[in-house]
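Title: [Solved] CBM10 domain-containing protein 3D structure

Original question kept below for reference.
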Amino acid sequence: MDYSIEQWDANSEFTTVTDNAMSKGYGIKYWILMRYRYVCKAYDIECDPVYMDENYQYTTNKNVEASFDVAPSGPWGDMGNGNPQQQPIPPTEPSAEPTSEPTQEAEQTPTTNQSPYQCWSEVVGYSCCSSNETTVYAHDDNGDWGYDFNKQEWCGLTPYDEPTQDEACWSEELGYSCCKSCKVYETDNDGQWGYENNQWCGIQSYCSK
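Solution (posted by the thread starter after getting help):
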């Protein structure tokens, strides 16, 4: 079914619309606003406080606005009670991409025996999900990911389990600690490199088992 002119005009602003086949289209300006906020937070960019304000006011066309009461069998799964009625699509998947390659001059970070992490996402700089956030929206080497729609940011669902560390960390002699996770960002003559806590780290042998 084609969208009406009224739906088309509303969807070019902040209104999310749907057709009889339950195909939803997020309002273009609403989608841009959500992406803008995500990028500002994810990359710690100083952005316009007007658009970062969670109480930022915008209008929608109630005559054609789609309902977000998604059934458990729908693409979002069972959202349960207490969730916002207007659920945005999570933006691009969580990322902690490094911005430069490892060098020989790195300052080694001291390690402690007690893990400071509660979930795997904290290793790469993301908070753990609250007990109310259980829906999985993405999965990668760091486990399952949920999305906090109130904060507009990704969160981790997989509990942190301390892996068996290598007896000798090969990257320490180069000035880098070894990684907890197994995601590889770079490979060179020394070995495979990950990126955690805003610094490079050496991938351990248990990642290849």
